[in-house]
Amino acid sequence: MKIREMTLRELPMQLMAPFETSMGVSTSRRIMLIEADVDGVIGWGECVAGEDPSYSPETVETAWHILRDFLWPLLKGREFASASKIWEMLSWVRGHEMAKGAIEAAVWDAEAKIKSIPLSKLLGGVRDEVPCGVSIGIKNSLDELSAAVQKELAAGYQRIKIKIKPGKDLAQVQRLRQDFPKIRLMVDANSAYRFEDAHLLKQLDAFHLMMIEQPLGWDDIYSHVQLQKELQTPICLDECIHTVEQAQAALALGACKVINIKLGRVGGFTVAKRIHDLCQKYGVPVWCGGMLESGIGRAHNIILSTLPNFTLPGDVSASARYWAEDIIEPEVTVSPQGTIRIPSGPGIGFAPRLERIEKLTVRKERLV
């Protein structure tokens, strides 16, 4: 196979409602899409880099630069046997996993289309549907939070995750356990705490949470090792895990009991699958986190979640939770039982709405 050309696009998309985390408030997204022409077949990927470097060092601007000026020259004119070889071809560039993951995902989509099979089958997925959870941002009041949870439970979601930060944590969890004593509940701190806050985080043990996601520093595996020893509640690592080696260290040292695998954060399907396999070997469950993606990125997350060790509901919720109108058809929907059916068509199984994508595009660059 050979990538004949690649097109980068930027599309501004307005969120249905503001989404607040410990890092700030998002009201819109600068969606970055990748079109890869592989032997005349178009594969689609999405770069999940943010507008600013608060979650990751990568941003839309850095990803565009790295894709155009470094990754594309490494791929241009080169033949490869399968999409699984793309990661090795890009290894000269250190880091920049979100940029790498975007083009790698697009090539996986193209390969599955060339072979006329669903991408889930090419990847080794085993599920016809995946369980869904939902991520709820920080709310202004406890009543507003409780109402938001009630709405998502009524929609069928199997797991509730709430964002927390200092001053918006214990009271929020206590209220939800009061109102919904039996739901599957977890919290996500996005690195808002330090080890010195262990006494506060230990109080969360009383609420029987599924996990506490990324409570400490985004690059601090050591302190998570120490914190997990103090907590009964499992720690889930997110921002700390970018590579197989980091996952190996976290698991071997006991820094966590769950790992959130985000396709963009780890650099695409090849590394995601290796981390998945490693966790399975350790008996550690994984789930797929979201990055406020458009339907393109959401479709790839759904595919990733079909691998066998994705045993916990991920943040792969319906398009309508985030967008008044998505850029794929059909849009992603969730059943009353809180599941998403895996599309049976070739590739990601969702068709990009080309006319809408073109209309929304504010920046476009064709690389040949």
Spell out the CATH superfamily of the largest domain: Enolase-like C-terminal domain
Low-confidence stretches: none
Q: End-to-end distance, in Å?
A: 16 Å
CATH class (first level) name of the largest domain: Alpha Beta
Fraction of residues in β-strands: 15-25%
Mean pLDDT: 97
SSE order, one letter for each helix or strand: EEEHHHHEEHEHEHEHEHEHHEHEEEHE
Number of domains: 2
Count the beta strands.
Answer: 15
How many helices in DSSP terms?
A: 13
Named CATH topology of the largest domain? TIM Barrel
Structural class: alpha/beta
Shape: globular
Radius of gyration of CA atoms, rounded to a whole number: 20 Å
Largest sheet: 7 strands, parallel
User: What is the helix content?
Assistant: 25-40%
Across the major sheet, the strand order is 5-6-7-8-9-10-11
Any idea what the CATH architecture of the largest domain is?
Alpha-Beta Barrel
Features:
368 residues; alpha/beta; Enolase-like, domain 1; TIM Barrel; seven-stranded parallel β-sheet; four-stranded antiparallel β-sheet; 22% strand
Could you explain how this protein is built, in words?
This protein has 13 helices and 15 strands. With 368 residues, the chain is an alpha/beta fold. The protein has a 7-stranded parallel beta sheet. A hairpin with a 2-residue loop joins strand 1 (3-21) and strand 2 (24-38). Helix content is 34%, strand content 22%. Helix 5 packs across helix 6 and helix 9 (244-253) runs parallel beside helix 11 (269-282). It folds into 2 domains: 3-116 and 354-367, Enolase-like, N-terminal domain (Enolase-like, domain 1, 2-Layer Sandwich), CATH 3.30.390; 122-341, TIM Barrel, CATH 3.20.20.120. The radius of gyration is 20 Å and the shape is globular.
